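WARN retry 2 of 3 for item q-0093 after timeout on previous attempt; input resubmitted unchanged.
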Amino acid sequence: MYHDTGEVASITHYEEGKQVGKIIYYPQNDKKVIQVKNSRDVNVKDLIETKDGILLNKSNKKPYTGNIVEFYKSGELNSKGYVKNGEPEGYQVTYNKNGQVRLISSFKDGKVDLKNILFYKNGKFIKN
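OK item q-0093 returned
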């Protein structure tokens, strides 16, 4: 969903027509992102990445499916997204340390959908 200015208003992840996880809201006049953390979010550090880039559960070594988050060393949210069978699926959002959206990437079947990559610089929408 977008504001009238073209900036992202919210992001919701869907799988097979059903909402997966919670919604992330981006207020129009406020640079601060309202980060809605789902109790099912898993930190990327708690998963194993194979040399092929597949994310596995540490406990059973099977490809992971679910929400993922990654944080800067200083504790701020770095990225948030969804993984299906160990590969990115849907939107993956990357943030600057100040909480501003830096990049939104769209994935389908583990591959980047280049038509749907959105870049943000200084809070402004830039089409690629």
